[in-house]
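From the pipeline queue, job 12 of 40. The input is one protein chain; the requested action is below.

Action: predict structure.
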Amino acid sequence: MTAAETFRIEVRGLEKRFTKGGQVLDVLQGIDLDLEAGERVAIRGQSGSGKSTFLQILGTLDRPTRGTVRFAGDEVFARPARAIDALRNRSIGFIFQFHHLLPDHSALSNVTLPALIAGQDATRARRDAAALLDRVGLGARLEHKPGELSGGEQQRVAIARALIRRPALVLADEPTGNLDPKTADDVFDMLLELNAEAGSTLVVVTHSDSLAERFPRRLLLKEGRFADLSRAGGPA
């Protein structure tokens, strides 16, 4: 499924519990949430409230303790592990606060890698990656390694990498939290522009009030559940 075939997401009764040192911590407590195909959502909340945990479950990097996540009506975690891995590679793009680029690989190689893992033709993958890097202003720096790029440039490479497979769902966890305000605004502008063109669903965790205000839907995660700040503060 590509971004051209974006899917509706339905989360029901989602719970996540951690046990550490004999203590039980209920991070997510019965979350119900619908995300329409192509919707843009910002998630706010205090540190430790479970924002990143929710994003990891939505992105199939972690499993819930209880509850269901459905993409286009199909229960994600009912699939075999290999099928979940294939879904993640094909349909979900991730952008993190720290770019997690491979330090010994060029910008072009970093962006190309997800397409190669998916079995795409190498020539086409490199062409698509080069086009994306050009779109994010790095067309002249294809062969530069991460250590030769600024923080903002590295995050632009990470955005291109997340979008190379034209994912239906893009998840960003504090994608500009490690950048200065001006660079953060520029990088965020680029993310929103490219996402609008792709038509994919975008879910962003951010501590920034100004960035969150640019989203039509804003959720606050508090005490394990969402309140929808863009809909008069009612439960999500």
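Job complete. The longest helix spans residues 181-198.
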